Amino acid sequence: MRVTGVIRIAAMLFSLGTMWFFAQTYFNTSWKIVSLRSWRDSSPGLANEQNAAKAQLPRNKCNNKRSCPENSFAFRVTSGAANVVGPSLCFENTILMSVVKNNIGRGLNIALVNGTNGQLMKTASFDMYSGEIKNLLSFLKEISSGTIVIVSSYDDPATKLNEEARTLFTELGSSYASKLGFRDNWIFIGAKGLRDKSPYEQHLKNDAAQNKYDGWPEVLEMEGCIPKKMD
Ligand SMILES: *[C@@H]1O[C@H](CO)[C@@H](O)[C@H](O)[C@H]1NC(C)=O
Questions:
Q1: Contact 211, 182 (CB under 8 A)
Q2: Ligand 1 environment, Cβ below 6 A
Q3: Which InterPro entries does the entry mention (predicted)?
Q4: Is 225 helix (H, G, I), strand (E, B) or coil?
Q5: pTM for this prediction
Q6: How does pLDDT run across 207-218, given as a tens digit for each residue?
Q7: Which parts of the chain are beta strand (E)?
Q8: How far is CA 54 from CA 22, 58, 65, in A?
């Protein structure tokens, strides 16, 4: 077997592993097992991609590299780029928040989605540099069980973040909320009722020696599939 084949299989097993992990911790409910075969068959390989291009087949949801198995939602989340380009949140092929939709802002951009049917419930943007932390706190406290929470940072996610807000994010499954700092980049998908850490999170520290932009780190992007909540 070619080395690239081995790597692809390792990547698929890893994807399945994280999905399984998330499912196990997700709302304490059972999760239908996706077989490796159906996963592989539904993920377009190079040949499939070339055929798809020829036949003009529909692209994957959110323009993702792989299609998502049944009983999961496709997502793609991008953080802001410095204080210049705003973040974007795609879920099941719908842009929930973006510059074009004109519903993003400096700080933390958050979309709430029903974990069972994928319906958008709410979007909101919280200025974490000069806004009121109480707005974010009341928003986070009102999230009901079974809700998927999608978060993307823009410019500065942390100046106003206090212990209470950090703890609320940690309870949604975040590993980095407790350490977020001034102008760090952060994208995160958690859920209310999650029993463990979410595998869907990326964080880049604002570090003058490493920053891609003058004063800000590189843009973060994450795509994948989230298991639906099974009742
Ligand atoms: C999500 O939608 C289902 C119906 O499809 C409903 O029963 C459930 O209460 C909703 N969950 C939340 C968190 O609103």
A1: no
A2: 114, 116-117, 144, 146-147
A3: FAM3, ILEI/PANDER_dom, ILEI_FAM3C
A4: strand
A5: 0.77
A6: 777 777 777 777
A7: 72-78, 88-91, 94-97, 107-114, 120-126, 147-154, 185-191, 201-204, 221-227
A8: 36, 11, 17
Which one has a higher pLDDT value, 73 or 56?
73
Residue nearest to atom 10 of ligand 1 (CA): 114
Whole-angstrom distance, CA of residue 127 vs CA of residue 16: 36
Say if residue 193 is exposed, middle or buried (CB neighbours under 10 Å; 0-12, 13-18, 19+).
buried
Q: Residue 125 corresponds to which tokens in the numbers above?
A: 């943007």
For residue 213, what are its two tokens?
Answer: 């932009």
The mean pLDDT value for 120-130 works out to 96
> Alpha-carbon torsion 97, 103, 107, 110, what sign?
negative
Ligand 1 mutation target, pool 27, 113, 116, 194, most atoms within 8 A of CB = 116
- Section 103-125 average pLDDT: 96
Start-to-end C-alpha separation, the chain:
41
Amino acid identity at 89: L
Burial (Cβ within 10 Å: 0-12, 13-18, ≥19) of residue 180? buried
Ligand 1 centre distance from Cα of residue 29 (Å): 15
Query: Is there a contact between 141 and 134 (Cβ–Cβ < 8 Å)?
Result: no
CA of 189 to the centre of ligand 1 (A): 18
Predicted pLDDT at 204 = 83
